[in-house]
Queue: 2 jobs
Job 1
Amino acid sequence: MCEALGVSRSGYYKWAQEKAKENSYQKRRKALLARIVWLFKDSNNRYGSPKITRLLRREGWEVSERLVGKIMNEHGLRSCVSKKFRVSTTDSNHKHPIAQNVLNQCFRTSAPNKVWVADITYVPCREGKLYLASILDLFTRKVVGWKLADRMTTDLVLAALDRAYKAQKPHKGLIHHSDRGSQYASEEYRARLQQYHMQASMSRKGNCYDNACIESFHSVLKKEFIYCTKFRTKAQAQQEVFEYIELFYNRKRIHSSLGYLSPDRFEALYYKGIS
């Protein structure tokens, strides 16, 4: 065949090798694209190239974040991040006692259920306003308790606290940190903290950095979920908030601060290590 075509044998073999490499590269690129699309869709379009790169490497792929980002851009795969929108949910103009700032921006702790941080955020809904009270474990970054309701009352934050206590069963002495909102400073809430043998801690007035971890969670919640979703009814909002927190955020969403593990997985590995 080489004689008929007037080419050298070495030229033919070189062409054949390059063709095989090209076919192998195209197959790998096609398989890589398929996996990137799957991981992107599995996160409900929330993961960008850094997290997808981590997941690919965990599966054995040798890829750079730059390549993953390039492929995602070529195919229009962009993580859903919405613009910021803030509604004030803190009423610090009250006469209730203010707890000392025990936490004092010390956001590192040695085990689960030693420090919880709490806050309230606004959730827009066409059927009416909704407010989400959340409690986050500082060690695992897990949402240990939450409650969604149409009124920003003490009952709202009490329900979130009761759920967290029932689910986690923490030992005595847990530090519970919040802002100075009237709901957290109320007599009923302080009594519940005493009942659960928890130590109250509150941020300084007007200092959002004192409660930065729960503020960060609510920021993520808004950017990649709330403001990317149109809640027509309160029932829809309840269902989808449940799915985001319980099925995605706690169980699946990887965190760089946890070594790119989910809160549930990080917690499970901790207890496995001490058993």
Job 2
Amino acid sequence: MKQIVINGVKFEVLASDLNELKSEIFDNKNGEIYKFLTKFNADEPDIFIVDGFATKENLVLNDGSNVVFIKRGVMPQKDVLKAMIAARNSPELNEALSNACIGVAGLGGLGSNIALSLARVGVAKLVLADFDVVEPSNLNRQQYFVKHIGMKKTEALKNLITDVNPFVEVITHDVLLDSSNVAEVFAPCSIVCEAFDNVVGKAMIVNEAGLSLKDKQIIGASGMAGHYSSNLIKTIKFAKNVHICGDLVNAAKHGQGLMAPRVAICANHEANLAIRLLMGLEAN
């Protein structure tokens, strides 16, 4: 017998691989696990996720393996939905995410993409700060829709995150960040992602990294404008607790604007580094 997790609940099974588990559960259409899956319309699954990997192969099951059975197109109940979202991660990553709090300073092209990527992964808590509203010109690169025009970015992004992953705790601050309040706003966070669209804000965060934010990892961005090669965007360690993502050269200027592709690439460099830091991994 081994103990594995099936759709978020621990069960003891005899099976040593996925095919044996399917047979054990579904052949006689009876038993505790089958009845459990029936409650959530997953008694005739056609998607199988084993330890974060969606597969059609017959994978070996180990003690502690995490298996999710999904019936395509069926909305699961909320208590199973959380397990299904987490199923695409490794157990180690889920453990790191379960206690994580990450801040996002600025909710424009960078920040809205960073926050949604982290929400999709399943970070436990996000602290979001911005003073602005959604404008039509934002829609070329920011994760908002026409229906959000005129809304506070904090409110619009919180609503989007809830639609993506309702299990993320979202704390919002409708405030203009500066050196007098940035430490208080991001006090609960171990990592702060800088996502300003102005040099003054970026300089402030880097300066505070050695002062009021010295106990946090800071991830900033520099150089993502235009349609230059995606491969120029990189992640570097800039100082003891400061990391920079971008090509470090191509700032927004006349004739070289900010557009969705490169902004989103840079934003996801920031989000990916945040995950790596939570896992205790280096930037590179």
